[in-house]
Design a protein that fits this description.
Helices cover 41% and strands 24% of the residues. By secondary structure, the chain is α/β, with parallel strands linked by helices. α4 (105-115) crosses α5 and α8 (211-218) crosses α11 (283-291).
């Protein structure tokens, strides 16, 4: 497992990671989530000994990465897909890595086949697309058959088939009892892949819990009801602590009652139900709510930008007109 205790990293005045304490356990896929600039990549670099912590410590299976005698057999990592010698073929890149640990050539062929690069294995890695580079990076991470796998944004540049393949691969690795720690900005993909998530913002720990707990905590007790008898059911459900809203004639959104309570009421009144679905917040919605105060870089909608530009333009034009008028008056005098 991966264990971080009071992990901090400062770059000058910037505190990139602030006292993180967490444990990544084997047998499940753990997602590492956070806005841009939250400290995820810095944390992963410290796990791999690429950055020295300012304070605290982090270990893999009880030892610091620098103390591992054969690191490729202990930890497989992908932090940068393009971190390859661009003039080497994919096959030679992996052979060079394998040679550092005495890994046999057949293992190189196995991981090339596993990631789907057999047809391009002899081509220069510098000509690879981002998606092909990701596959090569994953092959490098799995080369030593490690019990711990750390991947930073592994689905970037992959097509839908590639994303599905990575999802199934990560689940399979975890099912084998490995520790799988993966960061991603694709919340929909993390919801399908990860069982547990660690969420950080501005370098601090925000959440360390299962995906189920995170989405449940962000959900309100709302049930979507579809019925041809909406008016009768609405009247029957009316109560001081119950809210019923409607966006369509045959649809009700009920807050304050469980699906079972609504179903029992409809049954007692012999009202037909075509749908009865408890609403659960998505991982994306839960994440956005949890991290909204920790986002460092905010974009603006195009309409907002256009309005601001138009306002600024109008203000500038008015100022210029006033200046020209004042200048003309002065010249006349």
């Amino acid at each position: 497992m991966i264990e971080a205790r009071g992990l901090s990293k400062r770059y000058g005045d910037k505190l990139a990671v602030d006292g993180l304490t967490f444990t990544v356990k084997p047998g499940i896929v753990t997602g590492f989530l956070g806005p841009n600039g939250a400290g995820k990549s810095t944390t992963m670099r410290m796990i791999l000994g690429l950055d020295r912590p300012t304070a605290g410590d982090v270990t893999v299976n009880g030892r610091r990465y620098a103390d591992l005698g054969a690191p490729l057999h202990e930890v497989g990592a992908l932090l940068e897909a393009k971190a390859v010698h661009t003039s080497r073929s994919a096959h030679n890149h992996l052979r060079a890595l394998a040679a550092t640990h005495g890994i046999p050539r057949r293992r190189v062929d196995e991981v090339i086949d596993l990631v789907g690069l057999t047809d391009v294995a002899r081509k220069r890695a510098g000509g690879f697309s981002l998606g092909m580079g990701q596959r090569l990076g994953i092959a490098s991470a799995l080369l030593g058959d490690p019990p711990t796998v750390i991947l930073d944004e592994p689905v970037n540049g992959l097509d839908p088939e590639g994303i599905l393949w990575v999802r199934n691969l990560l689940k399979a690795l975890a099912a084998e009892g490995r520790t799988v720690f993966v960061s991603s900005h694709l919340m929909s993909e993390m919801a399908l892949t990860a069982e547990h998530v660690i969420v950080v913002g501005r370098g601090r720990l925000i959440a360390d819990m299962s995906v189920e707990e995170l989405t449940h905590g962000a959900s309100v007790n709302t049930v979507l009801v579809r019925t041809p008898d909406a008016a009768q059911l609405r009247a029957a459900l009316a109560a001081p602590d119950v809210t019923v809203s409607s966006s369509e004639d045959d649809v009700l959104e009920v807050t304050g009652l469980t699906a079972a309570q609504i179903g029992d009421t409809a049954r007692d009144l012999h009202l037909a139900l075509h749908e009865l679905t408890p609403q659960r917040a998505s991982l994306e919605e839960a994440f956005m709510t949890m991290t909204r105060d920790d986002v460092e870089y905010h974009g603006h909608l195009a309409t907002e930008s256009a309005t601001e530009s138009a306002t600024d333009s109008a203000t500038d034009s008015a100022t210029e007109s006033a200046t020209e008028s004042a200048t003309a008056t002065g010249e006349t005098r």
